[in-house]
Amino acid sequence: NLVFRVNPKDIAFINAVFEWYHEVATVRTRDPKEGLIELWISPDFYDEALKAVDMLLKAGAVLTNQTPLLRGVNDKPETLRELFEKLSFIGVPPYYVFINRPVKGNKAFAVPVEEALTIFEKAKIGISGLAERAKLVMSHATGKIEVVGMDEENIYFKYHRAADPENEGRFMVFRRNPNAYWFDDYTQKVAEFSFKESPVGAS
Asked: The pTM is what?
């Protein structure tokens, strides 16, 4: 299955296209306000589904992809790189790669945050253009948090979107924790900085 972000106004049209391509794929709307749809493709109709996607693009629909990082599914750099390249080639560039929260029912598919970042960054080596623009994020209760990077001691986060306006543009540094599966597992904050509160040109 593939997850796309589209213009909410296009959802009905996209549904109609795949109804016309009978049994090729099923469209499920995840979030009508955000324009998130999920495309469940039958393995026997993969090529036909790509033709339908191409039809949508030619009709003016703007499609981007969101995918979770899942243990045993796409947790190898080469697998994720192949996905990025194929999506970009068909005109559906990757947008978000989600770290899977280890809750009951899907904990077996969860990947630790720092391992996920390593997989993600290795996957982007050697690719270029739209295939490289994906962001590694967590859909946290406080907002969408991007995992920006890490060094030998620290890991770096930034609010990509925030529920609280005060957190918009907030950049955070924590001590690394290889056993962390979620943002809440990072408890040793080293520093934080707010781009929202910082004047342009300030040192």
From this structure: 0.80
